[in-house]
Amino acid sequence: MNKIKTLVKQFKYKLLSVVAVATCAALLTGCATRVESYDKGVEAEKVNLYAKSLPKPPKGYAGLYFIREVLVQGANLNKDLYVDGQFVGETYVGRFFYRLVKPGTHLLQTESSIGVNNLVGEFKEGENYFYQQEIVYRPMVQGARLVKISENDAFKLLMNAVRAKDQDDRTRDLADADYSEGKGSIPAPLTGDDAEAWQRLGNKAQEVLKTME
C-alpha cells in the first residue's frame, strides 16, 4: 500500500513538473515587449484627447480603432495587427491604434496562437469603426481575435487606454498582403492641428503627417 502511495505521489509530481515547464515555455514565447505610446508629456495628452474625442475622419476616409483592454490576463502577450495583410503594429495591454482606411471592404487580421484570425469589415466614408482585440485562452494556447464593438463600448475602453505610436513596417507585412488601390490603412492625424493640415493639403496629407511623427 505504501509503495502505491509513493508511486501516486511521484506521478503527481511529474505531472505538475510537465505542466509547469509547458506553462513557462508558453509565457516565454509570448513575453510582451512594451509598445511605444503617447503616454508622457503635454503633447501626449493632446494626442490622446484628440483620438478619444472620436473625431470625424478626414474627407475620403473612415476611422478605424483597434483597442486592447487593460486586463491582467494576457498582459504578457504582444499580438500583431494587420489591415489587408499590411502590418499596423504590435499591441500591448491598455493601448489602442487609431488608423484611417478607404471606404469599402477590408480584411482585419490579428496574430493568434497559430497564424492569424481574420475578420471582414465594411467601411463608409466619414464614419468611425471600433474593434477590440481579445486574448483567447485555451489549454496551452494563447490566441487572439478581433470583435467589432459599439461606439459606447469603445469610448469606455478608450478612457483607460493610451494611443500607441504607429509602427508601419513593410518588412512585417503578411506574405499575401494586398497592395492594390484603396487597401491597407494609414496613420490618422495625431491632433486637431494635424487634421486641419490634412484638410488643407488633401492628398499630400499622408506624407506631411509622416514628417510630424
From TrEMBL:
Region of interest called Disordered, as start-end residue ranges on this chain: 169-193
Domain DUF2846: from-to ranges: 59-137
Keywords recorded for this protein, A-Z: Signal
Alphabetized InterPro entries for the sequence: DUF2846 (IPR022548)
Signal peptide range: 1-22
Pfam families linked: DUF2846 (PF11008)
Protein name: DUF2846 domain-containing protein
